[in-house]
Amino acid sequence: MEKRTELYRGKAKTVYTTDDPERLILLFRNDTSAFDGEKVEQLDRKGMVNNRFNNFIMTTLEEAGVPTQLDQVLSDTETLVKRLTMIPVECVVRNFAAGSLSRRLGVKEGQALEPPTFELFLKNDALHDPMINESHAETFGWATAAQLAKMKELTMKVNSVLRRLFDDADMMLVDFKLEFGTDAEGNLVLGDEFSPDGCRLWDKETGKKLDKDRFRQGLGGVVEAYEEVASRLGLKL
Ligand code: 5GP
User: Residue 213 has what pLDDT?
Assistant: First the structure.
C-alpha cells in the first residue's frame, strides 16, 4: 500500500490517503512540538521510535480486547491504519498528579490519585485544548452520550493494561491522552497514537522523566529516554 495524497498534517504525524478508501497511512515525523506548537524541534530518530513504540502498544491493547485502528507497520516511520472519523475530544487518565492537573488544582506533582482521574479536553489548538465535560461534548455534538461512556470504559481498560505493562518494566504510568474515532460501521475505535509524546512515564526508583516532559522542560536526552522506555519493554528498534 502506498501514500497518495496528504489528507492532514498534524504536529508530529502526517496522514495520507491510499488506494483503499478504508485505509490511511500515518507518517511519524521527527518534529517535536510543545505549548500548542510554539516550541518545535526536529529530533533525530523520534519518528521511527514512536512508530515502533505505537505499534507495540496498539498490538498489546488489541490483544487485550481494545479495538484499535492499527492495520500493519509499513516501514520505519509509516503505519497503515483503518480510516476513522475522529472525535475531537481527548481523554486523559491520571494515576499520579502532574502537568495541568497540578497547575489547575495546586496538587503536588507525584501525588498518587486513587481512584485515577478521568478528564476530557477539546482538541482545539486555537483555544489551547480547553477542559470540557460530557455535557459540553453532547450539547455541541462532539460526541454522543453512548460514545462518551464507551470512551471512558475503554480508556480505563487501557489504563489497567498499560499500568501493569510499565510497572513490570519499572516505570510509573503517570498519565496519558487517548483519542477515539468511529469506523465505517460506526464502531468506536482507538485512534491517533500511543507514544511517550502523549503520556508521562517516570522511572519507579529515581523518578527520572522518560517522556515528552524532557522536551517541554528542556531536560535534554528526549529520544534517548524514549529508546530507554522501548528497550525496557523488550522492543527491538
Ligand atoms: P496535561 O493536561 O497534564 O498537559 O497532559 C496530560 C497528559 O496528556 C500528558 O501525558 C500529555 O502528554 C498528554 N496530552 C495532553 N494533551 C496533549 C496533546 O495535545 N498532545 C499530546 N501529544 N499529548 C497530550
Answer: 98
User: Which residues, judged by CB distance below 6 Å to any ligand atom, belong to the binding site of ligand 1?
Assistant: 90, 92, 98-101, 129, 175-177, 197-200, 212
- Cα(33)–Cα(48) distance, integer angstroms: 16
Rounded to the nearest whole angstrom, what is the distance from the C-alpha of residue 229 to the centroid of ligand 1?
A: 18
Residue 194 pLDDT > 90? yes
Domains of the chain: 3-82 (3.30.200.20), 85-221 (3.30.470.20)
Residues 18-60 have pLDDT tens digits of 999 999 999 999 999 999 889 999 999 999 999 999 999 999 9
| Short-list 27, 31, 125, 35, CA closest to 81 | 27
| Residue nearest atom 23 in ligand 1 by C-alpha distance | 198
C-beta atoms surrounding 164 within 10 Å: 11
